[in-house]
Write a structure and sequence with these properties.
By secondary structure, the protein is of the alpha+beta class. Helix content is about 30%, strand content about 40%. It is globular and about 45 Å long.
């Protein structure tokens, strides 16, 4: 199954794997996944939502907390603990929603692989049960992830363009 440029598979009864290629180096993608000021620009689900709170303590054992708000004022909070952080290659974290619609804690493993200036992001989310995974698939989560990743691509492209303009203005030694 595909959602725009987001490729989605369900390799096991409890997992969803999302893969997306970005036209950016993996250090830039890693930064966008881990820096609050960048996360707020893209990581908030479907259009009309926004991220109103973003806290990140990026270290093993550190926590994160996001609060998203919909156009109708609905708030959705989630957070977790970082189990593994290997810049700029890999992040493993738990995730629990305040209103637990996913059936308990999930574990997300995000791997970034760079080749030829492009980065492949692979996010594997492991749910507590097949039922929890299936509920996530039916929830609109893929539409939200697809929209978020589209915004991430736009952010990365605009950052690269700003960098190119800055380099063009700087005198060379």
């Amino acid at each position: 199954m595909k959602t725009g440029q987001l490729h989605v598979t369900t390799p096991t009864e409890r997992e969803i794997v999302m893969t997306r290629i970005f036209a950016a180096p993996r250090t830039a993608v890693f930064d966008a996944l881990t820096r609050p000021e960048l996360l707020k620009c893209w990581c908030y689900g479907p259009d009309g939502w926004s991220m109103v709170d973003c806290e990140v303590d990026l270290r093993v054992g550190g926590t994160y907390r996001f609060v998203l708000r919909g156009t109708d004022g609905t708030r959705m909070g989630l957070g977790g603990v970082y189990r593994e952080v290997v810049p700029p290659e890999r992040i493993v974290n738990t995730e629990v929603f305040d209103q637990d619609w996913t059936g308990g804690e999930t574990v997300a493993t995000t791997v970034l692989e760079e080749e030829g200036g492009k980065t492949t992001l692979t996010s594997t989310v492991r749910y507590s049960s097949k039922e929890a995974r299936d509920a996530a698939l039916k929830s609109g989560m893929l539409r939200g992830a697809g929209a978020s990743y589209d915004r991430l691509e736009e952010l990365l492209v605009s950052a690269a363009a700003r960098g190119s303009r800055r380099e063009a203005r700087e005198p060379r030694a």
